[in-house]
Amino acid sequence: MPSTTCIPPNESAYGPLAGIRVIDLTSVGMGPYATQILGDMGAEIIKIEAPAGDVFRHAEPARNPGMGTIFLNLNRNKKSITLNLKQPEDMKTLRDLIETADVFVSNIRPAALRKLGLGYEALSSINARLIYCMAVGFGQDGPYAPYPAFDDIIQAMSGIASLQGANRDAPAYVNTIMADKVAGLTLAYAIPMALYEREKSGKGQSLEIPMFETLVSFALIEHMGGKSFEPSLGGMGYGRVLSPHRKPYRTKDGFVSLLPYTDAQWMRFFTVSGHSELVDDPRFNSPRARSQNIDTLYSLLEGIVGTRTTDEWLTLLKPQDIPIASTLELEDLLTDRHLTETGFFVEAHHETEGDIRMMGIPVKFSRTPGKIARLPPRQDADREEILKMRKASSESAA
Q1: What distance in Å separates the CA atoms of residue 20 and residue 129, rounded to the nearest whole number?
Q2: CB 136, CB 110: distance < 8 Å
């Protein structure tokens, strides 16, 4: 793969979070995803790793040990230092860094953090402005608090696996680490909120972001159904989404995603597809009627789509402003016209990993844009720089 962009370490301030220092004591998915987002937006992220390293360093494929692809996609714009928190000197280094930080994030279980002397009370006593973030599996005031939690576990417990398997013979996981990423996004938006509040109060605070509660909230937005009311108006689950006929539809030569949604879109679709008799069909001529007959409607849609090729449907429906798209494979994304023209994928030369490809930053700020200033670090790559930073901070305080 040719390298089209070379991104050396760039310490100049950038982005809306410039000047914010984050001590990142997280690994795997949820925490690193959140802190990468903060780093993309200009925060200084100091990634603290145990001697064994972040688990995702070891996920294949990889060109070199400790630099697996998932790690590369979760840990740019960070500085890495390895600390063994069982060693007093390393613990002192961490506490010295926390004393200079704006944010501390950890996915170590709270009881273990307190045992290490890293609970909120201990750290707020040395840094009263600290935003202290606990990325946990379960809310700490509930009976599940001590249980371990990973993406698969949370997908199962939150109802996501049940929803994914609704039209199969068994529950199924979504084929992405949804729990980690949704909880990571929640963590990423909670931290700037706390920083904004600190600007008004001058005080830090403790945040708790539980994966389980976050995913239950995420899942039930449309699926609370009749249980939104007391007494209940019916069961749970959003019929349109759970219809067995809601899926990419097979054309003569492939698949399309097709979703007429408004009254006007449905009427135009019935007309241009050659089924104008459905325009006045009382089962389909209003949003409520379509909702009540959604399985029948989607079954008809599936049959209609099978009568033309993918290109024929795209040519027919796009000019009618009816939502339709080809169903892409993962590799199709790398050459997608829109992603190419917007420069979404970024190619860079990593000093040890060679040419790599990354997703760009999807959020655009007109005045304070984020950027990829540092490529994902080798473990402990920034030790000297970070230790000098600690020394400089200590000397300044003295």
Answers
A1: 12
A2: yes
Query: How far from chain centre, in Å, is Cα 205?
Result: 24
What tens digit of pLDDT does each residue of 237-296 get? Answer: 999 899 999 999 999 999 999 999 999 999 999 999 999 999 999 999 999 999 999 999
pLDDT over 70 at 19, yes or no: yes
Q: Sign of torsion, CA 359 363 364 368? A: negative
Stretch 25-44: mean pLDDT, rounded?
Answer: 97
The residue type of 277 is: E
Backbone angles phi, psi at 154, to 5 degrees: -70, -35
Query: CA nearest 295: which of 368, 237, 239?
Result: 239
State yes or no: pLDDT of 6 exceeds 50. no
Query: Which residues, 6 or more positions from 154, have their beta carbon under 8 angstroms from its beta carbon?
Result: 137, 160, 179, 183, 211, 212, 215
What pLDDT is stored for residue 146 in this prediction?
93
- Superfamily of 21-219+363-397 according to CATH: Crotonobetainyl-coa:carnitine coa-transferase; domain 1 (3.40.50.10540)
Architecture of domain 249-326: 2-Layer Sandwich (3.30)
State the first-to-last Cα distance of the chain, in angstroms, to the nearest integer: 51
Beta strand 255-258 with 324-326 is antiparallel
Q: How, if at all, do strands 345-350 and 354-359 pair?
A: antiparallel
Give Rg (Cα) of the chain: 25
Domain limits, the chain = 21-219+363-397, 249-326
Phi, psi of 222 (to 5 degrees): -100, -15
pLDDT tens for 179-207 read 999 999 999 999 999 999 999 999 999 99
SS3 320: helix
Residue 158 tokens read as 């939150």
Whether the Cβ atoms of residue 92 and residue 116 lie closer than 8 Å to each other = no
Instruction: Decide if 372 contacts 345 (C-beta within 8 A).
Output: no
Q: Give the closest residue to 223 by CA, choosing from 204, 247, 242.
A: 242
Length of the chain (residues): 398
